[in-house]
Amino acid sequence: MRGFLFICGLFLVFILSCNGAVTIGSPEMTAVFMGSTYLRVFWERNESIENNADFVGYNVYIYTDSIALLVDDGEELNKFNSQVIQDTTFQANGLSQDNIYYVQVRTVNIEDKVNGYNSTTPFLHASPRPEFTVTMRMATESQPVNDSSAIRYGDGFVMVDSSMVDSTADMWVKSSGDTIWFVTPSNHPLYGSGGRETLFSNIGPGDFYTISEVVSEPTSDETEVLTGDIIIARNEDGNYVKLFVDSIDLQNDIIVILYAYQNVTGYPYF
């Protein structure tokens, strides 16, 4: 689904071109949302731009190299949109989960002249990431084998805890009475030998979609969780995960988790 990245402010410059047409300063981008294979960028609506007689609309540029966007003349850049944009938002589809994309918005005038980039926010960055909702069972230490209590983040594969090592699980869920924990596989009392290492940081209750980046670096090998909590995890490969505890059913030992997995190693945004 979506994730968030915010920047504030506004910048505007008008320049007369050689033939008398006005080139119009580009707007400041305010947010970019990340989905599974897309991103959506937003920018400020400003009457000084849009009420100008020479204003036509906007172009959006999406590159994997940020330096390529830092040119004053945008005529040689390849725009992502097929038609000039009239709105103040644009969704780019068909993007890879393995790339970081740099996004830029520029204005276009009546002579089809592409204007310079906004110097306050030359670009925003984003990387589409998969999102999963999984139903798991909470392991109890009184049982030697607990079905559906462990998970591999990258593909949402839920497994029995006894297969954690062979199936490269990133986390298992345990319970004791009314208390539930997310735990690194290497800490399992029976199947932890050779298990992967995952660290956690529980940032407390919150809205899943308003957390757009790592706000607290994971440092704990297990964390207690409650319904509504948001947990930031980092697996052994360095991939960040944002987890939301959607519901807990203590009577049936079931927990439902919504999470976003960042496929780009070390990239702390969702």
Give a description of the structure.
- The protein is mainly β and 270 residues long.
- It folds into two domains: 14-126, Sandwich (Immunoglobulin-like); 131-261, no CATH class.
- Helix content is 1%, strand content 37%.
- The longest helix has 4 residues, at 47-50.
- It is elongated.
- The relative contact order is 0.16.
Low-confidence stretches: 4-18
Class by alpha and beta content: mainly beta
Put simply, the count of helices is 1
Which sequence of strands runs across the widest sheet? 9-18-17-16-14
**What is the overall pLDDT average?**
92
Number of domains: 2
Determine Rg (CA atoms, Å).
23 Å
| β-strand amount | 35-45%
Number of strands: 18
Largest sheet: 5 strands, antiparallel
Determine the fraction of residues in helical runs and give it as a percent range.
Answer: under 10%
Quick overview:
The chain is mostly beta strands and 270 residues long.
